[in-house]
């Protein structure tokens, strides 16, 4: 028995020294000290030893086990240190290398322009108001002097949910809602998303954004409208910008006009950007129709007002000289990173 224990111990020590990594060392531990290990098998065979020899044999087995465990632990510590040293060498950090740059997003060109528009109008004392995108037919059409079967509805063909609910075609309904709940004076702009059943092309989209403004007060005239919009476009496109008003028709304003601005690319001389005309159409405007005031609970004999509406995308296209509106919606980083 003594010779067998010495043989097991010598074999274990030899294999422990030959172990090159922690996995191999663990295999040695299992082979000799595991449940089916060689030293464990000797303990299980104690029943075959004479009773008077069992204490001595047991002591010999425990001493052999203790020696093997001691060498195992010492070798484990040594191999762990070697493994750590190798890992540290492989994962060394070169602090002289440039740090990884974090890619930080920025505002969309539409957002940049909207912020600029809001800054200009709030600087003139206007309030920014928002309203629902899913709107009642009454607020989107009837309260704006566009009754059922009016031809203007064909120009603003939209998406109906039912006979009375639709996706708004303009942000003018927000103006009506403000007039119903607030007494004049009123100075507001209403930016937001609108919807029309348009085909997608370079200048049209079924979903786009509008900014509509309105002023209601006593003794408001068309001159106030012209002065306000002139100040707006000059702050947006430059102090040299000229304006021109052309007669037009809108059901909710009377008189009505479309406003052109001198081409800021050529100074009004005519170029490819303005198609040789020297002028660029930018928005529609007019004096609020007395019927619209009356339907909203405001006395047209005491108060007057003006309103205007401009497409946010149109300003963005002009300001940044973009020739295709679809670029604003495609989320192409190569395009958006320019702004």
TrEMBL record:
Its EC number is 6.1.1.20. Mg(2+) binds at residue 254. CDD domains: PheRS_alpha_core. Its cofactor is Mg(2+). Coiled coil: none annotated. GO terms for biological process: phenylalanyl-tRNA aminoacylation. GO terms for molecular function: ATP binding; catalytic activity, acting on a protein; magnesium ion binding; phenylalanine-tRNA ligase activity; transferase activity; tRNA binding. GO terms for cellular component: cytoplasm. Its main location: cytoplasm. It catalyses: tRNA(Phe) + L-phenylalanine + ATP = L-phenylalanyl-tRNA(Phe) + AMP + diphosphate + H(+). It comes from the Bacteria. Keywords: Aminoacyl-tRNA synthetase, ATP-binding, Cytoplasm, Ligase, Magnesium, Metal-binding, Nucleotide-binding, Protein biosynthesis. It is found in: Cytoplasm. Belongs to the class-II aminoacyl-tRNA synthetase family. Phe-tRNA synthetase alpha subunit type 1 subfamily. This is Phenylalanine--tRNA ligase alpha subunit. It comes from Lachnobacterium bovis DSM 14045.
């Amino acid at each position: 028995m003594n010779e067998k224990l010495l043989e097991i111990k010598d074999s274990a020590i030899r294999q422990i020294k030959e172990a090159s990594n922690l996995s191999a060392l663990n295999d040695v531990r299992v082979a000799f000290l595991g449940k089916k290990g060689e030293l464990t098998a000797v303990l299980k065979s104690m029943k075959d030893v004479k009773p008077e020899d069992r204490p001595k044999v047991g002591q010999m087995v425990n001493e052999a086990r203790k020696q093997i465990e001691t060498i195992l632990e010492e070798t484990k510590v040594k191999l762990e240190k070697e493994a750590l040293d190798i890992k540290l060498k492989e994962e060394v950090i070169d602090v002289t290398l440039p740090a990884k740059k974090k890619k930080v997003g920025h505002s969309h060109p539409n957002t940049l322009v909207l912020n600029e528009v809001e800054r200009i109008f709030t600087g003139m004392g206007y309030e920014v108001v928002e309203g629902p995108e899913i709107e009642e037919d009454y607020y989107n059409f009837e309260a704006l002097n566009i009754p059922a079967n009016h031809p203007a509805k064909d120009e603003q063909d939209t998406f109906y949910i039912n006979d009375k609910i639709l996706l708004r075609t303009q942000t003018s309904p927000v103006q009506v809602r403000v007039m119903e709940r607030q007494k004049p004076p009123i100075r507001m702009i209403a930016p937001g998303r609108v919807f029309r059943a348009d085909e997608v092309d370079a200048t049209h989209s079924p979903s786009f954004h509008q900014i509509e403004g309105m002023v209601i007060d006593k003794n408001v005239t068309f001159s106030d409208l012209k002065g306000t919009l002139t100040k707006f476009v000059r702050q947006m496109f430059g102090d040299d910008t000229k304006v021109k008003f052309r007669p037009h028709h809108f059901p909710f304003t009377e008189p009505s006009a479309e406003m052109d601005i001198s081409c800021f690319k050529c100074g009004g001389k005519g170029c490819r950007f303005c198609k040789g005309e020297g002028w660029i159409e930018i928005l529609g405007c007019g004096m609020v129709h007395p019927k619209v005031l009356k339907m909203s609970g405001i006395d047209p004999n005491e108060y007057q007002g003006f309103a205007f509406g401009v497409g946010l995308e149109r300003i963005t296209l002009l300001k940044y000289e973009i020739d295709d509106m679809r670029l604003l919606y495609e989320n192409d980083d190569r395009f958006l990173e320019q702004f």
